[in-house]
């Protein structure tokens, strides 16, 4: 990530081999066997990375490494309607209203979003921004039943909220993104544009993992990027893999781009949801600063001799970092000897600790590597 060293790499070779896609030409009345599952073989040529040297190195070609991905029957051939039917029962529509004062009369602001039934006893997860600042929240299920919802807990750092409705024996989602990879098929389901007639379903792939995005509500980390269409009203709804598992909670989209939307990773969301149900809030350690990823452009502009890290952009005057002597412009490179190449990794390491823990911070200032021990404070959502 720095302008001082650049290694040229050979491009990866991707070869797609499709099997089992033949067509039968028998009479219309003759029964035909259903097509076998579509199997995609991805052949990848690993890119050899030579050690730095004064002269170019001619690296030998690497062996091809095949990987087979079995797609569900019908995927890419006919329909995913059975998958849609399987997940729809636990996808909720959420409507909100809040009273407002006008010059001559009172009026209501209405909103809409989506939710995921995560427990049979009526717990529903959605985005915090869907229900924030509202007076009345209702959850509508595909069964046709509607319920008044109570806010159980919220976490502003991840934009998650948990609602409770008085219901039992509900179909509930399974959340699991442990095996998720870039290129996997996913579908977004939710109350897009608050249209009548049931949830809207869109299909796409995982375009990226571990994304960080700045928003007006703060910066969010470790997000799933997808090209499945996400619109107003999809917020809080599920991003589902082809096994019917929730891999993410749809959260945001980039207005200036096409085909770029983001979801909260289910592996991040699950422990947060459990804490919200248990305590109503999430207590996290804080170091008292904000930062952004160090990029080659920032490093060149400010003449920072570092390849990667987190550059401090703001610092709380009564926080642990300020008391330890850290300043705006310092570049954090490690926490407890673990590299922090970006803000997502920095937050992950930080949140693995508890308030009161003492951590060792390595940072760069004026081309000098420094180390300081910081006692973490507590921050609640």
Structure commentary:
The structure is a single chain. With about 375 residues, this protein is mainly beta. It contains 6 helices and 24 strands. The chain folds into 4 domains: about 10-75, no CATH class; about 85-165, Trypsin-like serine proteases (Thrombin, subunit H, Beta Barrel); about 185-270, Thrombin, subunit H; about 285-380, Pdz3 Domain (Roll). The protein is globular. The strands form 5 sheets. Strands 8-7-4-5-6-10-9 form a 7-stranded antiparallel sheet. It has a 6-stranded antiparallel beta barrel with strand order 11-12-13-16-15-14. A hairpin with a 4-residue loop joins strand 9 (about 150-155) and strand 10. About 35% of the residues are buried.
**CATH top level assignment of the largest domain:** Mainly Beta
Largest sheet: 7 strands, antiparallel
Outline type: globular
Rg is 25 Å
Low-confidence stretches: 1-32, 38-69
Please, how many domains?
4
Mean pLDDT: 80
Helix content: 10-25%
CATH architecture field of the largest domain: Roll
């Amino acid at each position: 990530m720095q302008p001082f060293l650049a290694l040229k790499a050979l491009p990866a070779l991707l070869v797609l081999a499709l099997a089992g896609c033949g067509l039968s030409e028998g009479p219309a009345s003759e029964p035909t066997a259903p097509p076998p599952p579509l199997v995609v073989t991805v052949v990848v040529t690993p890119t050899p990375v030579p050690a730095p040297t004064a002269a170019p190195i001619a690296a030998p070609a690497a062996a091809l490494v095949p990987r087979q991905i079995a797609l569900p029957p019908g995927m890419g051939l006919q329909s995913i309607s059975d998958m849609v039917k399987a997940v729809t029962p636990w996808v909720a529509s959420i409507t909100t209203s809040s009273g407002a004062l006008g010059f001559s009369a009172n009026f209501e602001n209405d909103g809409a979003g989506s939710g995921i039934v995560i427990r049979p006893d009526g717990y529903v997860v959605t985005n915090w921004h869907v229900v924030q600042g509202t007076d009345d929240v209702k959850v509508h299920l595909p069964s046709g039943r509607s319920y008044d919802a109570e806010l159980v807990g919220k976490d502003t750092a991840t934009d998650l909220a948990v609602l409770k409705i008085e219901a039992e024996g509900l179909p509930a989602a399974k959340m699991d993104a442990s095996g998720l990879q870039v290129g996997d098929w996913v579908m977004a389901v939710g109350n897009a544009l608050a249209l009548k007639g049931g949830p809207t379903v869109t299909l796409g792939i995982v375009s990226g993992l571990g994304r960080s995005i700045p928003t007006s509500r703060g910066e969010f980390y470790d997000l799933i990027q997808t090209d499945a269409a996400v619109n107003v009203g999809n917020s809080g709804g599920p991003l589902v893999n082809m096994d019917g598992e929730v891999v993410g909670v749809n959260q945001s989209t980039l207005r200036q781009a096409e085909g770029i939307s983001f979801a909260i990773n289910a592996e991040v969301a699950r422990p947060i949801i459990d804490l919200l149900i248990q305590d109503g809030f999430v207590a996290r350690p804080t170091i008292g600063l904000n930062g952004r990823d160090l990029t080659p452009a920032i490093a060149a502009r400010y003449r920072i001799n570092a390849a990667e890290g987190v550059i401090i952009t703001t610092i709380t005057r009564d926080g642990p970092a300020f008391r330890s002597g850290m300043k705006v412009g310092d570049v954090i490179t490690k926490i407890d000897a673990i590299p922090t190449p970006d803000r997502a990794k920095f937050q992950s390491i930080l949140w693995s600790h508890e308030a009161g823990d003492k951590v060792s911070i390595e940072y760069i200032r004026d081309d000098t590597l420094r180390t300081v021990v910081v006692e973490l404070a507590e921050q609640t959502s």
